[in-house]
Structure formats: structure tokens, C-alpha cells
Amino acid sequence: MVSIMSKRYPPEVRKKAVRLALERLDEYGSAYAAARAIGPMVDVHHETLRLWIKKALDEGSRPGGTTSPGLSSAEREELQRLRKENRDLKQTNEILKLASAFFARELDPRHR
């Protein structure tokens, strides 16, 4: 039988890891992705770091040390989803603008 021993992390390691993850949370898009990327850098298992991040977010911690006690986890997830959707729509808009300009040039009789 394999025994898994938990590893105790010093409080300063926990604070540093959570701070780094929260500062870059928007860049990674989710606590899981941030934990997978930052965990190995600070020698913390990604699942442990993900739980720390989730707890910090539930307690209202925000990047830059600010707090926002008014948002629940569900609201935070919806906000994150809407921000991603907004980024995707802006990108789609840019692509459509470029395509529109291309076809407008192609259909212009002066272009030939």
C-alpha cells in the first residue's frame, strides 16, 4: 500500500505563491491554469496551489492586494466567462473588419 504524506508549506511560501497566481490570474484564465503554470516555479503542487487560490478568491483577495467582498465564486466565474467572451468577440470583430476591407478592395472596379 502506498502512503501519501502531505507536505507542509511555510506561510511565506503560501503567501508568495498565491500572490503570484492572483497577479497573473487574468493571463491564465483560470485558477487551475495559473496553478499548473506557477506551482512548479514555487515548488508547490498545482492542486494545493489551486485550492489556496480558490480560498483566497472566496475570501475576497484580488490581484494587487485589493478585496472585493461583494462577488461570490459563481459571480466571479461568470465575470471571467464574460471577459473571455468579450475578448473572443473583439477578435472576431477585427477579423471581420479585415475581411470586409479585403473584399471591398477586390470588388472595387478601380482596383483592376
From TrEMBL:
Residues 59-79 are annotated as: Disordered. One of its GO terms (biological process) is DNA transposition. GO terms for molecular function: DNA binding; transposase activity. InterPro entries: Homeodomain-like_sf (IPR009057), Transposase_8 (IPR002514), WH-like_DNA-bd_sf (IPR036388). This is Transposase. It comes from Nocardia bhagyanarayanae.
